[in-house]
Amino acid sequence: RIRDAAASHPRVLERAFEDLTRALDGGRRYLVGDAFSYADIAMAVTLQMVSPVDERYMALGPGGREGWTNPELAERFEGLLRWRDALYAEHRA
Q1: Are 88 and 32 in contact (CB under 8 A)?
Q2: What is the pLDDT of residues 1-28, one digit of tens each?
């Protein structure tokens, strides 16, 4: 029955990303204290459907990047994408 509430899904995501933006306010690197944690991983993964991470971390195949990118959210939450990309650059082998 997930489709019954489909109209509310974008706003749910926006609120989550707004909360994440507030949690990282002031240039914080990590969500919990001063160390990389599962909280950072979990929230970074949610941004995959806004704009996928670089291909060197996750191959998407033909049309994958275009299919998974939401231009409106990517523009609005550009700072979160930069945060996510920095996490990947530092912590993803």
Answers
A1: no
A2: 778 888 888 899 999 999 999 999 989 9
